[in-house]
Design a protein that fits this description.
about 40% strand; eight-stranded antiparallel β-sheet; Beta-galactosidase, Chain A, domain 5; mainly beta; ten-stranded antiparallel β-sheet
């Protein structure tokens, strides 16, 4: 259980999980997966977090997903200044239990979070290695005295190209594949990543994605800009397929209303598959939290669990 120090002060711990098939490293900073590797092949599946490209690995995004217009939103009459993809990814989560194969973390409100998000909450994140990958679930509990509203998602970055086969791979050797090979529906966004209004004035607005082969998205060096955003799918998973050896890394998408895909700008290094409960802000917004699209509401004491699990077929 290695620790990370900053200026001589203990800041974070990295928890290592192991079973007969995989090894994972989870950081108490953000309760974030830092590594997931195969003992069989040595493959490293999770992006290394090189800060010159993108400093994250697989952030949990809570209590909202995507971008906030103008960097603020009004919640309970309070102006809350917010960056993209929530604050949970940047905060220390408490390790509440661990074994060789499982670890559970918790983030609760603090003076710092109440300035950004004036609700009391518990966010528990559970990781457990299995024979086929990593079970990864988040549970939000309303510990406030009023209705709690939020969005939540994951933002896992997978190495692409992975280059663990003897011949090596390029990004064009991969595709994103939806389980049911269904024709995809895209939510319209503007280049800055905010939801776009349709010609009929409706937001969110959707249209057919127009992929050549239903449910298959080829990968190229062109990437996805600020992301391609999907809805109305029935697939239980979306995965990163290596077409050269037919291996695939799957992310659970069952019961999610939205899924984002994103690739780093420049030389391709990773691809993110991001199941979301929630949406970015609209391109035009009144900034009122209660009018934000896609929020989940919980009564006092209620819980909501999201499954972001990763399944690996080598």
């Amino acid at each position: 259980m290695p620790s990370i120090y900053q200026d001589g002060i203990l800041k974070h711990m990295v928890i290592t999980l192991k079973n007969n098939y995989f090894e994972a490293e989870i950081n108490t900073n953000g309760a974030e997966i830092n590594a997931l590797r195969s003992k069989k092949t040595g493959s490293e599946f999770i992006w290394c977090g090189d800060s010159s490209v993108w400093k994250f690995h697989a952030p949990i995004i809570f209590p909202y997903v995507g971008r906030i217009r103008d960097g603020y939103i009004m919640i309970r009459g309070q102006k809350c200044e917010l960056g993209p993809n929530g604050f949970a990814r940047d905060m220390e989560h408490r390790l509440i239990s661990s074994t060789d194969t499982k670890a559970v973390f918790e983030l609760t409100e603090s003076e710092e979070t109440l300035l950004k998000y004036p609700y009391r909450f518990s966010l528990k994140t559970s990781y457990e290695l299995t024979d086929t990958g990593l079970s990864f679930k988040t549970t939000v509990t309303n510990t406030d005295s009023d209705v709690l509203s939020f969005s939540i998602g994951s933002h896992t970055a997978f190495n692409c190209p992975r280059n663990t086969d003897p011949q090596g791979t390029s990004v064009s050797d991969y595709c994103i594949e939806f389980e049911k090979k269904e024709s995809l529906t895209q939510v319209k966004t503007i280049p800055e990543g905010f939801l776009a209004f349709g010609d009929d004035g409706v937001c969110p607005s959707v249209h057919p994605y127009g992929e050549k082969d239903a449910g298959i998205i080829p990968l190229t060096a062109d990437g996805f800009g600020n992301g391609h955003f999907f809805t109305a799918f029935n697939s239980d998973w979306a995965g990163l397929r290596n077409k050269k050896n037919n291996s695939i890394v799957k992310v659970t998408s069952k019961n999610y209303p939205y899924l984002m895909v994103w690739q780093n700008p420049g030389d391709p290094r990773f691809v993110c598959i991001e199941p979301w409960n929630g949406t970015p802000d609209a391109e035009a917004t009144d900034h009122e939290w209660e009018n934000k699209t896609g929020l989940i509401s919980l009564e006092c004491g209620e819980t909501f669990t999201s499954d972001h699990s990763i399944t690996i077929e080598e």
